[in-house]
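Weekly modeling sync, notes
Attendees: AB, CL, MP (scribe)

Item 1: holo prediction request
CL wants a bound-state model with adenosine monophosphate before deciding which constructs to order. AB pointed out that an apo prediction alone won't tell us much about the pocket. Agreed to run with the ligand included and paste results into these notes for async review.

Input as submitted:
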Amino acid sequence: MFEIGKPLGKGKFGRVYLAKDKVTGFVCALKVLHKKELQAAKVEKQLRREIEIQSNLRHPNILRLFGHFHDSSRVFLILEFAGQGELYKILRKAGKFDEPTAASYIAQMASALGYLHKKHVIHRDIKPENILVGIQGEIKLSDFGWSVHAPTNRRQTMCGTLDYLPPEMLDGTAAYNEKVDLWSLGVLAYEFLVGAAPFEDEPVKTQKRIVKGDMSVPSWVSREARDLIMRLLQTNPDKRIPLSEVEKHPWIVRHCAPAAVADEIPRGVAPKRSGSGSASLGPKVAERTRPLQKERE
Ligand code: AMP
């Protein structure tokens, strides 16, 4: 039995509350989803897949799903509590991150993705909205609603949010593999450092620019960071730098202590953010989320 505490947030299908196990005192986040809404949106199968995949993952930078239960009208997910909440909000507030903070986050993401890919899981929806932050400032990758367990490593469904979609997923006919997450990692690194996504434009233009890899990194971003971004944002998936090399890249090595890039070590307290602010980016960072599919709204 759980004692329900303050609301932590609201998603498309329900609310998330801070909760405490009455017997053990264990603190977690309880996500409450309404069956009727899940049925109406035809996402029951997606939820089942999300539960099956996420409950089997154990990594310090991946949000734990401890279990689930249901009553006649609701499904409850027992999730690890991420004390600092959504990375999206932290990024919007800061405007952009300084290089040590961005590098630490990217190193943690690379570690999480390396773990997933070894288990033949492709996340497919990497973006700041799907990353939570733990109380120590550590990354907690979440939202496995679009992830797939792909033993064959070839998938053909189109999903995700436009700004983060790799070229091979825009071309609905082409098969793709786990390298889609490498592209999104490049978009993420860019957005952390610049404060806006690299292909941000009107939707049709964004698509065209993604396919051509039409972007440039501002000159005030360090040469090393630019190098990593460009190696990830390769339109040819086979040319993207592999995750094992991301962790050894000079930009990561420069900013992250060796322990923070070694496997299996609970990592990554991100260095204190010196929120560089959005002043240099103009009055406001454009609102994102131009979903390809309604349920991502
Ligand atoms: P979601 O339905 O997963 O999009 O969650 C809605 C909101 O609740 C998120 O944007 C977060 O602000 C918050 N939230 C969700 N899960 C957690 C968690 N495990 N720990 C802390 N906050 C959470």
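Recorded for review: Residues 8-11, 16, 29, 63, 79-82, 85-86, 132 surround adenosine monophosphate (CB under 6 Å).
Action items: CL to compare against the apo run; MP to circulate these notes.
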